[in-house]
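job 3f2a | input accepted
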Amino acid sequence: MKQQCIQAVQQAIGRSLNQPEIKDIEARIRRNMRQLAQTDPAWQTKTAADRMTEAASAAAKELQADAAKKKQRVALTILAHDRVANLMAQLPGDPLKALDRMLAFASDYPGLQSVESASRAIRDEAMSTMLDAIDMTRGKFLGLFADAEKARALVQELHGQDGGVPEAKVGAKQFAEVANRLRERFNRAGGDVGYLDDWAIPRSHSQLKVARNKDQWIADHVQWANRAKYFKEDGSRMTDTELTEFFTKAWETVATGGVNKLTPGQPSGGGARANRGSESRQIHYRDADAYLAAQAKYGDKGLMDLMFGHIDRAARDIALVEALGPNPNHAMRFHTETAAKEMIQAKPEAKPQIDKRVRRLEQLYTEVAGTREPPASAALSNAFDTYRNSNVFGKLGSAVITGLTDQGIIALTSKMNGMPVMQVFANELRMLNPADATHRRLALRAGLGIDQLVGSLARWGEEGLGTEAVIAGRASKWSQTAATATMRLSGMNAIDAGNRRAFGATMMDVTGDLTRRFDSLAALEPGDRRLMQARGITDQDWSVWRLAQPEDWRGAGDQVLTAGSIYRIPDADLAALSAQSGVSPTRLREQAATKLLGMVLDETNMAIPGPGAREKAFMHGNNQRGTWSGEFMRSFWQFKSFSVSMISKHFRRAMAQQTGWGKAGYGAALLASLTVLGAIALQLNEVASGKDPRNMLDDSAGGIPGLGFGMAAMLKGGALSLYGDFAFSNLTQGGTSALAAFGGPLAGDLETLLNLRGMTANAVEKGDVSNVGARLIQLTKGHLPGANLWYTKAATDHLIFHQLQEYFSPGYLSRMERRAQREFGQSYWWEPGEASPSRAPNLGASVSN
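job 3f2a | predicted structure (849 res):
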């Protein structure tokens, strides 16, 4: 770099530059000259010396800001290190357990809020403040189809253009405010993401689409580029040739996923997470039309996925840097190695087991941080996603009946939290009232039931089926829409959301009431105080909660403490607490709001279990999507994630009770309620299928030969739950083995296909009528959208599928009736193949033959 440049910067900064700074300064000056050329209309009229001086001054300010940021990060790193080290010291014999609890929610009252819980709370609170934008992107008719015109208007408003739709202006304003608020919180935790005045909405580029169309991608982006953002140092705009060269380099980065920037032999991926998002965001589209054209041609995500994906990533990053410091990847590796070393030195013979726990902890961190590798094969991942989606829309249409068992878990969890159970049930009715959406809207604005609002299928399928899908082809997108639609049309999503909102609203009301009656944690009754402290609630959090004004939800609760009510606390009211603690009012509000919503969402996921990071890490391990092993494992675990979640969370909580009687009582109450409700669900499913109820007194009438009804009810109610909708359905009662049934839908389908040839050979040899056609119809039915909806299942079976089965396999229906009587002791109140039922269900069959 020229000496005059060095002198200009030294004069602006007021000190001498060292050699590393001199090496970096020229790039800074060039970048600032380009940026000043964009913002200063008179830039080209200035002399070269003046331009150099202004750019050097801007570079000097950058150096000063970098120094301040570095100082901030050092301080934050030290604080985070001490915080984690103190946590590990609380479990001197097992520091790995401390790290495990710090990362993911643990139901055994760990005494802190996990990174996973904080991330979910930050995300759901952020989404709750942009409901209008969500409504815009979801569209109408149960959210099954997007409103293309309004979505386009929203994108136009985000780009500063008039979309002509008033709601779009509100939605764009909400998203912009949320994105900026998250950016500022991230920066306060040590991040360094600058504000871009023309940043409107995240964009996505399908690596596959971009890689296949190099020349076209470059030509398109030269055409779509905002020329006002591409300048040379002298203030003149780039020519087409220069823009082409720029986008050629950009193409290399996008098409290779950044591999072009790697230096062989040097480590990668170790950069501070606080730097994420601070890299130059240099693809600028000229307007909304150019952005939409680029997304349509090269994107791989929808508008809603882009918006919510941005919020989800920001929330994860914030939670990680607030807990572990500006470089959480490095910090986590350091603390894990420290813990493992300490444990191995204390017990060398346990090294194999400790190494295994380290690997599990690394997998858990991957889930919490959201850093799983993209699919190794997009085509393979897409194919299996489509298949698993088809299992959701073909087999879970009656899952709403199984959802009845949630009420037992809700009642138990409410009781454990000191909540009035009947108020929870009353609030469920309020949240499900089709004539009045007031309470649903209040709950949504409090961050309750957000996943169900945006159409997540995590509970019913797996994480690849909802908004987290990374790569989706046309078939996968269609099947994802069909799966979501089936769960909505069955009523399952609405009931699940209603349950969650009702539980969360009641817990917020109880919490708000406690803050009105007790001025400190110490003043709480022992049981309530223990619960609060077990969730990581501190005296400082309680003090902030007391300063908030609870909301009156007109029947659902009159002391509802929400994150929104905490954020509305004026700075003046927090001045004394801020001075005492040394924490800014903004940070006090953020901490207290995240603790509150995180606590409520954690307990809601106990009451209505859904898979979290811990369960996903257990099921997926190191199996990468887009590999045969990874896809087979995901298919094996399909429909089992809810069961794994329920067992892991409630078993851990049962064992966390203080006395032996407490442990036994918790387990007995859970088992009894789930078994009773599971029995009801089993019988309702039978009636919905056109059969009489099963004989509950017959040990052989369990649904799988040799399995008693009581055991079947227990498994369906808790241990298997939604998986029981597959294992105990008529889809598995026509010859599928118990082993294949428990192996999952894929195993069952493969067994059916492999048996078809043998069935045909046997039929010919014995002179029997082949069941091949009927079994193929049954197999097809299990993959048709809405074929098993609980309120149409009996009609579609008898009017369509039974007729087809009898046509292709004459005599199949009579054999099916005999098998039901022989193996399960059941008769049909609606005879197979008949257009209308011959009688009403025989309810007495449930207690006799």
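job 3f2a | Residues 140-145, 262-271, 460-472, 701-706 have pLDDT under 50 and may be disordered.
job 3f2a | closed
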